[in-house]
Amino acid sequence: MDHSTAPLVDALADYQRIGRYGFTPPGHRQGRAVDRRVADVLGADAFRADVLASSGLDDRRNRGGYLEDAEALMADAVGAEMAFFSTCGSSLSVKAAMMAVAGGHDGGLLVARDSHKSIVAGLIFSGVQPRWITPRWDAERHFSHPPSPEQVRQAWEDHPDAAGALIVSPSPYGTCADIAGIAEVCHARGKPLIVDEAWGAHLPFHPDLPTWAMDVGADLCVVSVHKMGAGFEQGSVFHVQGDLIDRTRLSACADLLMTTSPNVLIYSALDGWRRQMVEQGHDLLDAALQVARWARTELAGTTGITVLEDELLGVEASHDLDRLQVLLDVSETGATGYQIADWLREHRLLDIGHSDHRRILATLSMADDKTTVGPLIEALGACVDDVKGSASPSIRLPGPEELQLESVLLPRDAFFGPVQDVPARDAPGRIAAEQITPYPPGIPAVVPGELIDEAVVEYLRTGVAAGMNLPDAADSQLDTIRVVAR
Question: What is the pTM of this model?
Fold first, then answer.
């Protein structure tokens, strides 16, 4: 296929060149009606490019063929049999995948318990019964790793009627599962493997990155191009191969959830990014990996900071690691990751993607070089000196057996049934009617339908006091917790 072309980008350029005008949405008419103050901030060109309904760029309503061609090129670029663009992020994509595989299926779906909140939302929407796969747990560092093939095999033995399995790899921290081994376990039973690979859009384009799910037998994977690629926020792609996924059903499930007014800017950015990666991806990622190696070496020399790498790999840890994700343990500074992140934001205007009670994560991409990473290295050195001796809030850290809550109701039934808000002290022993998610990284500590215990309440309440963010709880301060009404 000719990867020098970008069908959506080229069609958009033609649309603008010939001066087409449409009496259709969007109502701003290529920016003519937009407040100048808005255009000055967002750029007038963004509105001029925001066309769709009259342009034939969306095959779901028109017959231009541009979107279909762009998706075919994307599939060819990464070695999948089919690709499908989404403009509602991987949050939509993974929900559609879950519904396509397990919707209406009594056996449920094997789901890794370290899954993102969007997957829990998919369980609520679909009514699918989760059959939880326990992640591996590093008790010393209070850190979970993706499940092993052996854990997935045990989950299949416990729930042989499940429709399929869903795992997250890479995790938001860059740790990766043994996808080849897990796919082999699933396929031995004739069941599909879905991989939420939202953090792995770049993986097919450099051999020194972790294994791309499509290369080792996954049946369906979902990627977020905005995370580790160069697309707009909400740009996501499904990739499919093999005969264990009903592609017509998948498309129909996506259509149920998808907007009928997708943004052509997001589509075009996906298309253009694919062309860029085919032509330049190896070199761009090679340079980024070199910068990451330099950053890791420099940061390893900063007192009080441990650059986590070897600690994250092994038989009882993760199978592989995306080294563009630079995970730093800051516990020796005496400060929490929350405090370090707040200091960097306030004093150096630097934002860190993830932080928790003892870690921060710097996510590097092909956009970074020493001019962007150098200031972070210098800032962390200054930060360590500044926070030295500071009092760190105490967080009650439960063990894995305390965090693995018992599921007693379907997430859908708990969420949509009669609920009440009770004081947090009264929540242990009650069934959760909401998901409660430390964010980032967005992995729920409590899922609707789970039996709340005292340890998780203490963990979350002491976490909030230390700076933890709980954006989806009805009460973000967690003075009250929403539970199923008796």
Answer: 0.93
